Amino acid sequence: MLCPGRRFVVKFGGSSVRNHFDSAVSFASRLWDAGEVAVVVSAIKGVTDALLRLAETRDGIEGIEALHRDFALRHGLDPSIFSRLLGELERSVESRASFPSEMAFRDHVVSFGELLSARAFAEALSAMGVPVVLFDPWEVIATDGNFGNAEVNLRETLRGSAPVREAIEEGFVVVVPGFVGGYLGLRTTLGRNGSDYTAAVLGDAIGADAVLIMGGVDGVYTADPRRVPFARPVPFISRERVKVASLLGMNALHPKATEFEVPILIGRTDDWAFSTVVGEADSGTPVITHRREGELFRVSVVGVDSVPGYEGESREFNGVRVVSFWVERHSLRGFLNSLHWALFGRRRTAPLAVVS
Ligand code: ASP
Ligand code: MG
Questions:
Q1: What is the mean pLDDT of residues 300-304?
Q2: Model confidence at 253: pLDDT above 90
Q3: pLDDT for the residue 347
Q4: CA-to-CA distance for 108 and 188, rounded, in angstroms?
Q5: Is the CB of 14 inside a 6 Å radius of any atom of ligand 1?
Q6: How far apart are CA 214 and CA 193, in angstroms?
Q7: Residue 45 CB–ligand 1 contact under 6 Å
Q8: Where in the chain is the domain with CATH 3.40.1160.10?
Q9: pLDDT at position 246, please?
Q10: Is residue 354 predicted with pLDDT exceeding 80?
Q11: 356 pLDDT higher than 50
């Protein structure tokens, strides 16, 4: 069995919910067979963008409704599980005047993406005979009032998450919508890709053994594997280095998810493969990241002083050595691949260094 007796928080990203929902649900249920589980769910991929447009233009609710109805039907769920939430969403969109600010209104509207996907997840688990409790995220995750990019209030969240801890100890799987928090009775959101942050905070608050971040890629890679075919996973990487890599463009993990001591495992929903542990240990393998900056891309190598044969800008960023280069869009792929070759060669081999 999978790690018997352990307590996990497992988070599924939006593309996992959209493309690998059944696999995600069975993984959560298998973890529960063996131990304790709290599940954090992102909105179905594309829904958060649609909700942001809805808040802005008051237009497009039919598309969101249709998408969820199709989703339910595709997964053998009754579409009426979404009726109450979709009704509330419809009424919220018409009630801008009852919110203190545009930002508060927008966060309220956007919160429905995660509420809907978490509802589907809870229903699907329940249909498998797993006892589930679905929480309102604002009851668990307390934040400040910085709508759109709220910071978690740890002390309050520790209190808010006590019922989560109790429920999992009683044998329930807990489902918590990601990305959403609460501030003085209003809903807040934690910034784009914020569900990783929800999962890490929750893992910390309930004393989880590990937080599993499940998505389309099974780990932190030496470079973006969609652009660099020879990229390979980094087995162990420190929180500091992941944070810097995320701030410089890597999207395997939200930078704020690295602020807690609970170990984070990065896995792939599709086949339950895990290739990276984020924590104390660091295998020292350099990580190449890239990020668009204006017309150019900044390519950074995180964890080195220099790259042989390449002249870049070397500096320290949040205590980590980084070398950066600027390249144009049309040469990005070629540059990433040749830089990767310079650092790692062309074979898929073991990492450069062992855990120190
Ligand atoms: N649904 C939110 C977003 O699209 C949060 C997340 O997916 O983690 O940014
Ligand atoms: Mg992500």
A1: 97
A2: yes
A3: 61
A4: 7
A5: yes
A6: 13
A7: no
A8: 7-215
A9: 97
A10: no
A11: no
Nearest to 140 by CA among 279, 43, 39: 39
Nearest one of 193, 86, 195, 91 to 137, comparing CA atoms: 195
Ligand 1 pocket test, candidate residues 47, 195, 251, most atoms within 8 A of CB: 195
Here the tokens at position 245 are 């890599």
Kindly tell me the sign of the dihedral angle through the C-alpha atoms of 239, 245, 251, 252.
Answer: negative
- The best mutation among 39, 40, 192 to test binding of ligand 1, ranked by most ligand atoms within 8 Å of the C-beta, falls on 192
pLDDT for residue 1 is more than 70: no
Relative to the alpha carbon of 214, which ligand is closest? 2
Contact in structure between 154 and 203 (CB atoms under 8 Å): no
CA distance 137 to 42: 12
Helix axes 102-110, 47-57, angle to 10 degrees: 140
pLDDT at 5: 84
Question: Is 180 within 8 Å of 111 (Cβ atoms)?
Answer: yes
CATH class of segment(s) 7-215: alpha beta
Which ligand 1 atom sits closest to the C-alpha of 179? 5
Ligand 1 pocket test: pick from 39, 40, 52, 114 the residue with the most ligand atoms within 8 Å of its Cβ.
Answer: 114
C-beta of 255 in contact with ligand 1 (< 6 A): no
Q: What is the pLDDT of residue 348?
A: 56
Ligand lying closest to the C-alpha of residue 180 = 1
Give residue 4's pLDDT.
78
User: DSSP string of 86-133?
Assistant: HHHHHHHHT-GGGSSSHHHHHHHHHTHHHHHHHHHHHHHHHHTT--EE
300: Cβ below 6 Å to ligand 1? no
Distance CA 254, CA 48 (A): 16
CB of 12 shorter than 6 A to ligand 1: no
- Asked whether the predicted pLDDT for residue 351 surpasses 60, the reply is no
Query: Atom of ligand 1 at shortest distance to CA of 193?
Result: 8
Q: What is the per-residue pLDDT for 335?
A: 97
